[in-house]
């Protein structure tokens, strides 16, 4: 089991580390770490460069999480089709999926390709949970949409969506590891938004629909 864990951890971290926000912004002559909130996440890219680049980064970042979590699932599905299912395979798949999710999130937030800088891992986490726990991700999307419509704060919507995951995991009777990792990821996402929390309290946090800041290279 050690070898699969190591493979998933390395591949998942490298996938998560792919700095799509930085690369998309650089292609337009902007260093995303020097403008806006200085995050390479999709929200900052959208705020600085507009909806098109922001949507592209959102999709790419979500794909990182989905692939990192999907690799163990795809492997064990192939194994079942080729050789038949082993009694303990389901537990192994879940463990490896959780490892893939965690390392992809860490890779996105602390990318080895950008001097361990990154984003807040909302999109990458969402992509991972879409594979690991689709019902929970659906719940989080509803919470995100309602909060965004009422407050127009992407950061607040992201935090409350993340916070809803462990409650959804409990409500939908998920295994203990899924409930636990949902709570850990929610806490991590909220921690990564601590500067946004301070800006919301000060009334200086940007709202969706506000004019993007002029990019500086």
Describe what is shown at a glance.
The chain is mostly helical. The chain contains ten helices and no strands.
* Structural domains: how many: 2
Number of helices: 10
Low-confidence stretches: 212-217
Spatial shape:
globular
Our measurement of the CA-to-CA distance between the termini, rounded to an integer number of angstroms, reads 46 Å
Structural class: mainly alpha
Number of strands: 0
Query: What letter string, H or E per element, gives the SSE order?
Result: HHHHHHHHHH
Largest sheet: none
Strand content: under 5%
> Which value, in Å, is the CA radius of gyration?
18 Å
Instruction: Tell me the helix content.
Output: over 70%
Average per-residue pLDDT, rounded, comes to 91
SSE blueprint and pairings:
Elements lengths: L1 H16 L2 H8 L14 H8 L1 H33 L5 H21 L12 H11 L1 H18 L2 H18 L4 H17 L1 H9 L15
Helix pairs in contact: 1-4, 1-5, 2-4, 3-4, 4-5, 4-6, 5-6, 5-9, 6-7, 7-8, 8-9
Notable characteristics:
217 residues; 2 domains; 10 helices; disordered C terminus; 0% strand; single chain; mainly alpha
What can you tell me about this protein's structure?
The protein folds into 2 domains: 1-113, no CATH class; 133-209, no CATH class. The chain is 73% helix and 0% strand. It has helices spanning 2-17, 20-27, 42-49, 51-83, 89-109, 122-132, 134-151, 154-171, 176-192, 194-202. The model is unreliable at 212-217 (pLDDT under 50).
């Amino acid at each position: 089991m050690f070898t699969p864990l190591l493979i998933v951890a390395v591949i998942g971290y490298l996938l998560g580390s792919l700095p799509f926000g930085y690369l998309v912004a650089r292609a337009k002559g902007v260093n995303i770490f020097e403008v806006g909130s200085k995050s390479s996440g999709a929200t900052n890219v959208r705020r600085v460069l507009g909806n098109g680049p922001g949507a592209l980064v959102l999709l790419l970042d979500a794909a990182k999480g989905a692939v990192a979590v999907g690799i163990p699932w795809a492997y064990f599905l192939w194994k079942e089709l080729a050789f038949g299912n082993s009694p303990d395979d389901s537990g192994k798949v879940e463990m490896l999926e959780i490892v893939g999710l965690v390392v992809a999130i860490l890779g996105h937030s602390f990318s080895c390709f950008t001097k361990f800088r990154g984003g807040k891992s909302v999109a990458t986490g969402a992509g991972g949970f879409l594979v690991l726990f689709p019902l929970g991700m659906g719940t989080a999307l509803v919470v995100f949409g309602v909060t965004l419509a009422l407050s127009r704060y992407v950061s607040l919507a992201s935090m409350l969506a993340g916070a809803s995951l462990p409650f959804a995991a409990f409500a939908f009777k998920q295994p203990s590891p899924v409930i636990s990792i949902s709570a850990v990821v929610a806490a991590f996402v909220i921690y990564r938004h601590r500067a946004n929390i301070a800006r919301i309290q000060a009334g200086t946090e940007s709202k969706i629909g506000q004019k993007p800041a002029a990019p500086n290279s």
